[in-house]
Amino acid sequence: MRLRTTAPVLALTALTLPGCSSSHSSPAPVAASTASARPTATTSPKPAAPVTSAALGRRLLDENDLGQGYTRKPDADSQRDDVTVVGCPALDTLGSAAASGSLDFPNQAKASFTYTDGSDSELTEELYSDREAKLSQVTGRLFNAMTSCPSYQIVVGSTPIQMSTRRLSAPQLGDEQWSQLLTFTINGRSTVMKQTVIRTGTIVVDISGSPGLVDTQVAKALKKAQIGR
Hints:
Elements: H1 53-58, H2 63-66, E1 70-72, E2 83-86, H3 89-92, H4 96-100, E3 107-115, E4 122-129, H5 132-146, E5 151-156, E6 159-167, E7 176-186, E8 189-200, E9 203-209, H6 211-225
Antiparallel strand pairs: 1-3, 2-5, 3-4, 4-9, 5-6, 6-7, 7-8, 8-9
């Protein structure tokens, strides 16, 4: 997740700008993998392996999953080098992650959609996979940093974007959950976006966009991401 350049949504991997682009629960015990014999005191269940980027891509929502009115947007490289965060020390401590959007999750996939209801509604889904402990640690640290400052500013090139954020209660899905409401103000015009992130085993599901679309589609996205577990 980065500062995307299509519709304002702050993504979890740092800062993302699509124009510009949590409640947290303790991790649940990892379920034992299927085996022919029950683990004994001398054996430990084998940790679940991360999912490849190609496999994650097949688990993304598509137009058939979402229903009528959704159109997939062309994929685009949205990483930027000219992003600066002003007025939020917690984000400053993330260093290059906050500015460049780079995140050390080796496996990822992404899809973005517009919702043709006469408004400018958008929905973006990002899937990430790595070891469970790393997903939990990195995701929690980034989300805590992003929600630690009620207001701050992002400067993209020479354009200032006023940000405000509010941590929300996330739906009790998966193993860990985070959610926040973001307001982006550019040239006096404000846009409200929601981001809900669910960790399920070795996969992180990040849904961001118009609040109503996020609430409608997050459970469906999680269910599809869990295929094969």
